[in-house]
TrEMBL record:
This is MerR family transcriptional regulator. The keyword Disulfide bond does not apply. Residues 2-71 form the HTH merR-type domain. The keyword DNA-binding applies. One of its GO terms (molecular function) is DNA binding. It comes from Streptomyces lasalocidi.
Amino acid sequence: MALSIADVARMSGVTSRTLRHYDEIGLLVPAYVGSNGHRYYEQAGLLRLQQILLMRELGLGLREIAAVLERQIDQVAALREHQRRLLAERDRLDVLARTVACTIAELEQDEETNDMGKISRPENLFTGFDTARYESPARTQWSDQAQQSAQFAATLSEAEMERLQGEATAAMVRMAEFMQAATPVTDPAVQAEVDTHYQGICQMWTPDAAGFKALGQNYVDDAQWRAAYDQVAAGLAEYQRDAMVAYADARLS
């Protein structure tokens, strides 16, 4: 039994516009188009749409998904692989949830002792984060810079990585204190913190004004970066971004 595009949109949560786009790029072609011009889908199309949505959940782009589906032969084996990756992602998110829970517990304990903002093990703020998953988009947007960053990271020892993570967390806490005190992002003290942040990035690559602003926006848009900032203080990602924009306009333009 064939289902109309409206039926598929309703049951899957994917908009009709998106389904039409998938058809236009050859990713999900309907079983047939009726005399009324409406697209109709049969079971094979629904199963393909499920796979597309599974791979979207796993962070794949449409071109990557198309390549995977083109190579796919055994549908059940493909679904088993999707299930394996989803279970692995579930386990990773469980680790992240425990990381956040530990941070909340530590900050709540600090509230009781009137010692807000003190994290005993700063590196623990980042347990479970998979920063490698963002390597591909970074290479697409800033290929040379991403290569420089990877080369720099490869030279660091585990102790040096822990030190840098600790310094980054301490800087985030200082920015949170400025934000909570309603300090303008253009304040010299705030801009001094941003300058330290910029100089640290310059150890890996040297962003221009547009690149530095884009990096700040990424702290807001990227779910994992935003969560890391929000663990320190709600709204900190936006405050950091605004401070970076002010820095870029004043010193990098």
